[in-house]
Amino acid sequence: MGKIISLPEKVKLKIAAGEVIETPASVVKELMENSMDAGANSITLEIKEGGLKEILLRDNGEGIFPEDLPLALERFSTSKIRNEDDLCRIKTFGFRGEALASIAAVSKMKITSKRKGKEGYSITSEGGQRNEILQSPHSEGTTVEVRDLFFNLPARKKFLPSVSSLFREITKIFQQGALSKPSIHFVMIRDGREVVNFPGVNSLKERISQVMGKNFLSSLMEIRAEAGEFSLYGYSSVPSAGRVRPSQIFFLNGRPVKNREFPIALNNSYSKIMEKPRLPEAIIFVKAPVDSYDVNVHPSKKEVRFKNKDVLFRLFSTAVSGNKKSFTTKTFVMERGKFYGETSGKKLNQEIEFGKDETNKRVLGQIRNLYIVVEDQDGLYLIDQHNAEERVIYERLKKLKEASKPLLIPFVIDLGKDDRILFNARMEELKKAGFDFELFSGDSVIIKGIPVFLDFDDAEKTFIEALRGKDKVLATIACKSAVKRGQVLSPERMKSIVDEIFALEAPELCPHGRPTMVKLTWNEIGKMVGRKDK
After folding, report:
1. Domain carrying residue 315
2. pLDDT digit string (tens) for 191-226?
3. Same structural domain for residues 512 and 373?
4. CATH code, domain carrying 440
5. What does the pLDDT look like over 219-258, one tens digit per residue?
6. Does residue 476 share a domain with residue 516?
7. Closest CA to 523 of 372, 380, 383
8. DSSP 20-77
9. Per-residue DSSP letters for 81-148?
């Protein structure tokens, strides 16, 4: 008897589901795409326990015909393609007919839908086993309820990340969906509480402001380019902005995608105009002929592969260089960790002269990407760039009346027993430092605002370190917000740090007690080399 067998249908479904449905965020992605394909202009997402207990998505799209409900739960059943040739001309978000079947195979699912002028109907399934269609009152559109995700795959469930991590993944998918369709009204409810409400708007610029915030938008410039049938439109950082770990979101023909060439092409376009190690933030939409790329690289359609990469690099280069007129006539100064432009007659790549020297100290340069070298009438200073700016930010935080900046999409931190004790003890100190939060669902804390100088990417780690650390909360925040060792600084950034550190009383130590600078007097230097003159 041979060893090879044909697997039972239940096992086949679970294997297929594993390729498409990796986490609750995968479910949210597939359901949102179906709603957008259905022409919805309102989408509401409800999440419980990171999506493991429940994911409910409700839209006002065209709805599903009653007779199509059973087919919607079968593999390779779709309304979006008809033959093999259609695979090369896909313009919808979904097309394979795997999503609902795969979700149903690993959950307890209910679909309720109503077409315009028709009655509403529903169908339920458990682990892929369908029940009969029932008449169900419903407004025009579709509601998909997914409960007990991975209830029949305990091994998969066991290795999933924490509930807060799962929610962050869902939030990222939700943001991408909202950015891809600015005209749609998006609402997200977490554990019974509304956390996001983005009314439909008329432009990408307005939607970026809603999703990413006004401060994020203010550091961007509009870019666009065309090359034959290819085009690019979106927003990316002005050369004076950017971050070491930037947010870069790319869309291809409206679909959020991963593609190795997109970030490489964008970053290369900034290589001569942005100070390293910073890279541009970006939200960019690329339009390309459907036969110029392959969307079947990944089962969940997250990755695409282009046949001709050169045209992409030209497209990005043209888009960024086309905006040179808007920034080559500016110089930039540093204030509170961000660059702001000031009109000047000089080009960006020319040496920029400093203005009035208020401290009577002259910045000579940076060595080893660690120290700023400064001279004055008394001698030379070696200033540790991190320790010095850490002290500057620490002093600013102490004086700020409003030290918090609000988050458009809050995030949640799950506290253990020991952390909860520390939290109770340091709650007021955390609030005074700029963290805006409230207790949420037992031992979880929902963070609604973070300190003004802190990057969002560092917020969760900084909160935990401030909670558990021996240092004062303000000292921890200042440390995480300050320039890092090894970071190349512009002349303006160095001058700003020098001016501010010497403007302080007793500036010699950082908040942790480390020296901010070392001084060698001219007399000391003269003795070292055998000179008697001062």
Report:
1. 219-326
2. 888 888 999 999 999 999 888 888 788 889 999 999
3. yes
4. 3.30.1540.20
5. 899 999 998 889 999 999 998 888 877 889 999 999 888 8
6. yes
7. 380
8. H-SSHHHHHHHHHHHHHHTT-SEEEEEEEGGGTSEEEEEE-SS---GGGHHHHTSTT-
9. --SGGGGGS--SS--SS-HHHHHHHTSEEEEEEE-TTS-EEEEEEETTEE---EE----SEEEEEEES
Of 103, 32, 24, the C-alpha closest to 61 is 32
Residues 365 and 488 in one domain: yes
The pTM of the full predicted model, rounded to 2 decimals, is: 0.66
Co-location of 131 and 167 in the same domain: yes
CATH number at residue 262: 3.30.230.10
Q: How far is CA 199 from the centre of its chain?
A: 20
520 vs 502: CA distance, rounded Å: 16
CATH number of the domain that residue 78 is part of: 3.30.565.10
Amino acid at 244: V
Domain co-membership, 152 together with 34: yes
Q: What is the pLDDT of residues 318-360, one digit of tens each?
A: 999 876 444 433 333 333 333 333 333 333 232 323 333 445 7
CA 29 – CA 43 distance, rounded (Å):
12
Would you say residue 530 lies in a domain? yes
Number of domains into which the chain is organized: 3
Which of 298, 289, 221, 291 shows the shortest CA–CA distance to 259?
Answer: 298
Parallel/antiparallel/unpaired status of strands 282-287 and 248-252 = parallel
